Amino acid sequence: MRDVHRFLASLVGIFYLTCRLGGATPKSLCRKVLLLEPSSEHALRGHLLTNITVPSASSCSFFCFDTPECFSYNVGPGPDELEFTCELSDSDAAQHPDDLVPRPGFTYQGYENACLTSVPCSSHRACRIGYEDPFRCTCQMNYTGLSCELPKNVKVDVLSAGLDDDVGSDYCNLKVDGTEYCLKMRGHNIAAFYMNGTLIANAAFDTHRDEAAPNNMSYLIDSLPSNTLVLVAVQDSAFVRKSPAAIQSLIALGAVPPVWPNGHRASWFLIGYKGEPRPSWVKQGFADRYQGPSNGTAVFPREGCLPHGNQIEKWCSSP
Ligand SMILES: *[C@@H]1O[C@H](CO)[C@@H](O)[C@H](O)[C@H]1NC(C)=O
Ligand SMILES: *[C@@H]1O[C@H](CO)[C@@H](O)[C@H](O)[C@H]1NC(C)=O
Ligand SMILES: *[C@@H]1O[C@H](CO)[C@@H](O)[C@H](O)[C@H]1NC(C)=O
Ligand SMILES: *[C@@H]1O[C@H](CO)[C@@H](O)[C@H](O)[C@H]1NC(C)=O
Ligand SMILES: *[C@@H]1O[C@H](CO)[C@@H](O)[C@H](O)[C@H]1NC(C)=O
């Protein structure tokens, strides 16, 4: 573990030099900070970002410098004589003067904090010190996208209601990240997405009246690419028209018996996944006529490689 830290600490030094020498690093990603007078025998309390062990006090300095979220650090005695404890903080004594407290053997080091005087960053964006405009704002933890508008997790909300269920007006929800994709028609409503939350297709099949509906639905499901989120919710009534092909297609998405609504005006939904292995968030719900609505939610990490706060930075997650 300590070897890893030593290795990282030595890398950090190189990034620092590359940036200072104006090498291949884009200027906008270079960090330039002004060190304030250190406070010896003191440490900042309660704003810990990372706690590591380093081979020298200067490694701690490089580590903070290379961590965009780092505003200040405490460095002090480590677990043994040859090592140092390095605590990076996501805030500083300028913002929290009361948290700068005496601590034997430790030194607190802060940077000049431009975030205190500049315009605050917009929603889901956080101010980082030491970067040139417009790159001083980066995404807060758990948000991504060019304007930091996307949560790193995809959030799914599904609701199915039969005509006689007591729900007011909303008889179908197929929501991803708060956006409604249900066409709200009688029968089976479907929406399919890439695992980054982008819609592939949505459709509705009148499985109450239209004889072709179940096989058409089966055809749509079977033509979807692998590794997709597939949401299904019935609305009004979806009982009369059914087919073995449609049942097989729903089973392939993770549906288990009963794979069809339990009767006239019964509710039924599926938060399904096309692909292997089946994720733990796949779920299904149903209720008899008058007993609905049925609803459920799921949350999973967003897949993809998205611009993160600016054109250069990227946030990536792989399947
Ligand atoms: C950081 O880790 C050291 C041990 O390596 C520990 O003594 C110290 O209390 C930790 N700091 C915080 C703020 O948890
Ligand atoms: C970010 O997401 C992680 C994992 O899903 C969670 O543990 C953490 O509390 C979240 N942080 C914030 C600030 O929402
Ligand atoms: C989502 O993933 C699909 C397929 O990989 C891709 O074509 C699309 O551009 C991605 N959308 C975003 C917003 O990244
Ligand atoms: C089913 O597919 C047929 C042939 O493609 C089409 O004519 C019909 O409108 C479709 N019906 C539904 C309910 O989608
Ligand atoms: C179902 O909807 C009700 C009312 O909107 C909500 O309170 C409940 O949490 C939802 N249940 C699930 C599993 O989403």
Automatic annotation (TrEMBL):
Keywords: Disulfide bond, EGF-like domain, Secreted, Signal. The keyword Cell membrane does not apply. PROSITE patterns: EGF_1 (PS00022), EGF_3 (PS50026), GG_LECTIN (PS52031), PAN (PS50948). It comes from the Eukaryota. Its main location: secreted. It holds the Pfam family ILEI. Residues 30-115 form the Apple domain. Residues 111-149 form the EGF-like domain. Residues 1-24 form the signal peptide. GO terms for cellular component: extracellular region. InterPro entries: EGF (IPR000742), FAM3 (IPR039220), ILEI/PANDER_dom (IPR039477), Pan_app (IPR003609). It is found in: Secreted. Disulfide bonds join C139-C148. Belongs to the EGF domain peptide family. PANTHER family: UNCHARACTERIZED FAM3 (PTHR14592). This is EGF-like domain-containing protein. It comes from Nematostella vectensis (Starlet sea anemone).
